[in-house]
Amino acid sequence: MCGEQYVNGEGNKKMAYHRYDFTQYFIDNSEDYNKTGRSTRQIHYEAVSYHCNGLEKLLKRNHEMNYEIYYDKIRNVIQINFQKTNGISDWFVNIFEFSDKYYDAIEFNGYKLQLKVHHGWGEMYKSVKKTIRAEWKKLIDENPDAETEIVGWSLGSGQAILCCQDLNYNFGVKPHLITFGSVRPFASSKKDCRMLKKYLSTVSKECYNFANINDIVTYMPPFRRFSMINRVEIGHSESRTIGRLLRPTVYHTTYDCEELYRGIKGNAS
């Protein structure tokens, strides 16, 4: 059990925030990829189609964003889930066009920060951000004491990270961000690198972007100055090797292994 109860202005106690153990979020969000039989429920994704540009347009590849917003009445939590890579069009999103302007400037500590992201992931999130904002706002208005959790695996991790920044920037909320096989969606110039890291550290209440040291996906894009929010490296019982990095079917899909999270502060039991 995480968090504490407190009494609001009307004399009512707010429900304490309860976070699942980390493996449970992966099992649920991966649609129980490894068939553990431990899913708490089935996730029902909404599919949003959007147009592409550049090389993707030339190759006639349209895209689809898959997400879910769900209110968990028992835990008093609004949970936003993003689906993993699903089909060839998602691989085009992962691969093509590595950096693009996202915001003209963000005022942070008196500094104008130029925010850039991986183009494919940025375009995917832009296709649905207004809808997510509206749906989240409706749920938080109905449940003003609810916490917000944002969860994703693989491609979904990039969407979850962008969503966390978006909701914080537009509503001031600090979500609980939990991702697996996490990519690095944000890009910075050499000048902005340090300030970007400081800014991203402020957008969530707590953040666990889990990256197995032998999961090659977590080093994508493989260029300097790409980053995520609070990379949490796990899997140190096995040293990082080229052979292991070339086995994503093993190291990108086993985030439901409880041993990976031993000793990590904040893991629920």
Q: Keyphrases for this structure?
A:
269 residues, alpha/beta, seven-stranded mixed β-sheet, four-stranded antiparallel β-sheet, 11 strands, disordered N terminus
Tell me what you see in this structure.
Mean pLDDT is 84; it is low at 1-11 and 87-99. Helix 4 (119-126) crosses helix 6. Helix content is 28%, strand content 24%. By secondary structure, the chain is α/β, with parallel strands linked by helices. The strands form two sheets. The protein has a seven-stranded mixed β-sheet with strand order 1-2-3-6-7-9-11, sandwiched between helices. The chain has a four-stranded antiparallel β-sheet with strand order 4-5-8-10. It has helices at 22-29, 54-58, 88-95, 119-126, 129-142, 155-171, 193-200, 242-245, 248-251, and strands spanning 46-50, 63-72, 77-82, 100-108, 111-117, 147-153, 176-180, 186-187, 206-212, 226-227, 231-234.
Q: Could you say which structural class the secondary elements and strand pairing correspond to?
A: alpha/beta
Order of helices and strands: HEHEEHEEHHEHEEHEEEHH
Indicate the percent of residues in helices. 25-40%
Low-pLDDT ranges = 1-11, 87-99
Query: What kind of sheet is the major sheet?
Result: 7 strands, mixed
Terminal Cα span:
8 Å
Count the DSSP helices: 9
Radius of gyration: 18 Å
Give the overall shape, derived from the CA principal axes.
globular
What is the residue-averaged pLDDT? 84
Question: Would you count the extended β strands for me?
Answer: 11
Within the largest sheet, what's the order of strands? 1-2-3-6-7-9-11
Strand content: 15-25%
